[in-house]
């Protein structure tokens, strides 16, 4: 005669009872955390002693908004460029948008030409197009006209940060204008498997080690003087730019070397969200950039070793610090 199934029990409690109790406990914890978050936000608003607009008594003053020149590198991704311009022209921190056009075969789209030719109104952001005869990644940092501001927002056409994040980046940079400020850190370390080699390490190495050596110029703020330095006629930089052209990569690493060599300090990593449409799975590979190449990491390791040899030193400084917006962090 078959024995009827019975629920397993532990010390007098059935499995179903334990599951219900666990679910209730988890629900209670989630509700408590949610209420705590709301309570902290409420208290910050009600009991804040610092205004985001007017400093109390004039003793605490927010860094003055200096604005920036948005400098975007693009190549045959006009749909992304259209979205890019429409987004950043709404940002109050943007004083101008400069499009770097290095495509010698195709002319800029008509909408961009018309937008650049139109004289901006008081409420509009000026748009300029810098046309280059030669397709080179070095054009990203080659000035054809004087920028409208000292602060340069170097960014790719597939990178979007909110207007608030952009303003925060500028405020941080204004407190240390000789350093780079970025939201995409990377790490450089010695390659123990190669004699005198260097390794370029992606984001997960930054996360795992809690360290970074540079911030990518695909989304960063830097002083316009470094763009002049990038185009220097010194033999070392001429050779470095030639290496960038031969590898069709690493212009951002070269700029990091230039800044670190001048400051002897690490860049500033501002932890903030950004959207990278070139890496998005929703693009189905249509907008894949240089970093998607199978030999991308190896190429950049070779560039780092080459630049270190040309500079006669390794100027990149590793840091373990990051900046966050305290208004969005309730656990200190």
TrEMBL record:
Domain of life, source organism: Eukaryota
Transmembrane stretches, start-end: 21-42
Keyword Disulfide bond: yes
Keywords carried by this UniProt record: Disulfide bond, Membrane, Transferase, Transmembrane, Transmembrane helix
Ranges of residues in domain Glycosyl transferase: 72-323
Gene Ontology CC: membrane
GO molecular function: glycosyltransferase activity
The keyword Nucleotide-binding belongs to this UniProt entry's keyword annotation: no
Protein name: Glycosyl transferase 64 domain-containing protein
Source organism of the structure: Aureococcus anophagefferens (Harmful bloom alga)
